[in-house]
Design a protein that fits this description.
4-stranded parallel sheet, globular, 32% helix, alpha/beta, 3-stranded antiparallel sheet, 165 residues, Uracil-DNA Glycosylase, subunit E, 19% strand
Length: 165
């Protein structure tokens, strides 16, 4: 099994909420884009909340929309070994250094863990001194949650922190 490197964080001085996934899936690593699998609900959820056609926009435009709304994206793992895309296959994972978040994001108001594997590391992100939330994974592997249920859960938390009107 080869060692995989994650994607760089999408952070800015205006980031108010940071979404942390576990580690990019194979499709995301191939495209070098967060939430690159076409069945992942991440962009569809944000598009619905912001009334933007994010699913049809180019990646650079999606990132611009994230930053314009005060949302950052990263993963809890910076590197790991894994076959396929499932979190259950992650081995020898290396955590990202979350101390850099405070330096890059002085307006940070919350951390959102996208799914259970990411949330397993909430004890690390709580050290940033902001509220930490576990939201349902937007992954297509999380089929037990419907799109509408995921949308409602994400909307509730993002509204509390001014990322959604």
């Amino acid at each position: 099994m080869s060692r995989l490197q994650g994607l760089p964080p999408v952070l800015s001085a205006d980031t108010r909420v940071l979404v942390l996934g576990s580690f990019p899936g194979a499709a995301s690593l191939r495209s070098q884009q967060y939430y690159g699998h076409p069945q992942n609900h991440f962009w569809k959820i944000l598009g619905a909340l912001w009334a933007l056609p994010l699913s049809t926009m180019g990646y650079a435009e999606r990132i611009d929309a994230l930053q314009a709304h005060g949302l950052g994206v990263w993963d809890v793992y910076g590197a790991c070994e894994r076959e396929g895309s499932l979190d259950t296959n992650i081995q020898n994972a290396e955590l990202n250094d979350f101390s850099v978040v405070r330096w890059h994001c002085p307006k940070l108001g919350a951390i959102v863990h996208n799914g259970g594997e990411s949330f397993r590391h909430a004890h690390h992100t709580e050290k940033l001194g902001v509220p930490v939330y576990k939201l349902p994974s937007t992954s297509p592997a999380n089929a037990s949650w419907s799109f509408d249920r995921k949308l409602a859960a994400w909307a509730e938390v993002l509204r509390q922190h001014g990322v959604v009107a």
